[in-house]
Amino acid sequence: MEYLFDKQVEPGELIEVADGVLWLTMPLPFELDHINLYLIRGEGGWVVIDTGIGTSTTKSLWMRIFEQLDAPIVGVIVTHLHPDHVGLAGWIADTYNVPFYMTQTEYFTARAFAAGRNGATNTRDVLYYQRAGLDDPMIAKLTSGEGNGYSSVVSPLPISYTRLKHGMTLFLGDNEWVVMIGRGHSPEHACLYNAKKNILISGDHILPIITPNIGAYSTEPDANTLADYLNTLPQFKSLPRNTTVLPAHKLPFIGLHERVDSLIAHHHEHLQALLKACKEPKAVVDLLPVMFRRKLSSRNMVFAVAECLSHLNYLVSEGDISRALNDEGVYTFKVCAASKLAS
Ligand SMILES: [Zn+2]
Description:
Layout: E1 2-3, E2 15-18, E3 21-27, E4 34-42, E5 45-49, H1 56-68, E6 73-77, H2 83-86, H3 89-96, E7 100-103, H4 104-115, H5 123-132, H6 136-143, H7 149-152, E8 162-164, E9 169-172, E10 175-182, E11 189-194, E12 199-203, H8 225-232, E13 244-247, E14 253-254, H9 256-277, H10 284-291, H11 298-317, E15 321-325, E16 331-335
Parallel strand pairs: 5-6, 6-7, 7-8, 12-13
Antiparallel strand pairs: 1-14, 2-3, 3-4, 4-5, 9-10, 10-11, 11-12, 13-14, 15-16
This protein binds zinc ion (ZN).
The site of zinc ion has 5 residues, from loops.
């Protein structure tokens, strides 16, 4: 893999990565401390791709960006519903009164998360962590929050949107971008490919160095999101080897095919490690150290449980392990005698 730059662009600054494609970053208050955003030339101005988290810091950095542009904002595209991507989409789209593009599942899931517990209970959140084998103090820590974390960092979404669909071509000025859907990291994540420029805007679906989180969360505990992810990665190998990949985190790179292969290999290594660990029945909580060597903060615990469960769900659906509910109400996972992967 080859990186096109040796460091991140400074927040508030713009770098032209190709004719009509600008790169910028916004800070994030997490371990992963930045997100890459892009501006692509459209009809009469610039189309924003992802928006940063909804904080006053991000807003003021956007104001600095707007001042540097030679033309107005004419559209907002959001790859997926995570707050660092959709955070200021409503604010930018409504300020400029421009089309707001998202896929259907991402848009409505974002609306549901923004509504929080209006119309939904959280008893199954508790059950989800009990089934994973977490202790009561940890469960209380992860589920007792009163506020809505999502809407505190996502400005209100526009009440209407323009739908992105897999395989459709977006005609933006003289530029044609094909929508390619990736699943698993989020339900219907949009990537954008421009054949003429040979550029893929990959969002979080394909990242260099770090692997996108693939989780089965409490909203759908039995989800086989790892199969979704592994099934929607190979399509990117139909793009040229030398495609420039513009990811949402870390640096733009060339080496799409190798990266797809290594992401697939990474998950298969985790699957093998889990199979080895499940010779005897194990709960999710017992299996976390198999996948994560570092000590987990409570924020990371949420992602870790979901990631571990997505791999276990994959193995259950492949018939490699079986799941049982023990007397304490915890799911245990054990390798099947007939497992082809384990042999
Ligand atoms: Zn994401």
